[in-house]
Amino acid sequence: MKLRNFSDTGIQVTPIGLGTWVMGGWMWGGADERDAIDAIIVSVERGVNLIDTAPIYGFGKAECIVGKALKQINKREQIVIASKFGLEWDANERIRRNCKRDRVLKEFNDSLGRLQTDYIDIYQMHWPDRSVPFEETMSVLVELLGSGKIKAIGVSNVSVEQLKECCKYASVHSLQPPFNLFEQEAGEELLPYCAGNNIATLTYGTLCRGLLTGKFTEKSVFPKGDLRKFDPKFKGDKFKLYLTAVNTLKRYAGQKNSTVAQLSIEWAINQPGVTCALIGARNRKQAEQNSLILEEQIFSCEDFQNVDKILERTVQRPLGAEFMAPPK
Fold first, then answer.
1. In terms of residue numbers, what domain contains 269?
2. Number of domains in the chain
3. Contacts within 8 Å (CB) and 24+ apart, 296-303
4. Distance CA 59, CA 272 (A)
5. Is position 57 annotated as part of the catalytic site?
């Protein structure tokens, strides 16, 4: 598939990127480091050129894993690394937002060390911190951009109004919102605004915490520490409703000898305003399956229209991703 322009930065990215939250283990019931490194290596081998990570993913673990993989791959200039800042934690893993100038600079330097690199391609505010003026936060990013330590300024999990406010103080190049078949809120205002203002997007949650892989049943049990234990989509009657929708989509995808995951990924990257859809992977097998989209597109615009009709019938009152927001 053709590379896509990342705003006016000169960066070009593949339609899918590798998300590394699961590699940190935190909120996902643990993770294996060797498997995670293999997933990164095979993703790059299969053509994926963007890796998205953050300090909070495993409290530094995911970034360290990415750094080790980068060293093994030894093609840093060919890989686009996106990381974030703005969430700090204590010894008890209590999290709070902090986008103050000193904190941003500390996080940036810590991330460089863990990633074993001297620059970060896309540096993003992870969550807005309303106790700190956007002007203060954005000014740090402008300085990092001017020094060449980052190549693009990004924000994540903001509203259109917050995005506009950030743009008053910096040339914001990208937005990272949740977006998938079951969580389409970003498609109402955020994605159209970005498309109209040359702001690239890295949409996350493409497979909706694994729900859109089709691997779960009503008997599925999630280990302690797994965020799906408190995800409302994975509870009670709502879980049954979403599983019904997944099974209907699975049958539709099967008509083309494909999977519901492939259908979900193709749908996401073909939505207006989406530059790159992030997909997580725990191991080599998952990374190989995700990267198949780069080889051939199976589904058509008509298929996507039929998918929308399936969702209208099966999920009439969809739940959003608000449960993931950290304390304000």
1. 4-210+262-298
2. 1
3. 297/1, 297/266, 298/256, 298/258, 298/262, 298/263, 298/266, 299/253, 299/256, 299/258, 299/262, 299/263, 299/266, 299/267, 301/270, 303/252, 303/256, 303/263
4. 34
5. yes
Nearest to 43 by CA among 287, 321, 328, 313: 287
For position 12, which CATH number holds?
3.20.20.100
Average pLDDT over the chain reads: 96
Q: Is residue 314 included in any domain, yes or no?
A: no
Tell me: pLDDT of 37 over 80: yes
User: How far is Cα 108 from Cα 143, in angstroms, rounded to an integer?
Assistant: 12
In a domain, 277, yes or no: yes
Q: Whose structure tokens read 């810590």?
A: 110
Catalytic residue, from 57, 123, 204, 242: name it.
57
- The confidence score (pLDDT) of residue 323 equals 87
Looking at residue 29, its pLDDT comes to: 87
Rounded to whole angstroms, the Cα distance separating 106 from 85 reads 9
What integer pLDDT is reported at residue 31 of this predicted model?
A: 92
- pLDDT tens, residue by residue, 45-81: 999 999 999 999 999 999 999 999 999 999 999 999 9
How sure is the predictor about 225, in pLDDT bands with cuts at 50, 70 and 90?
A: confident
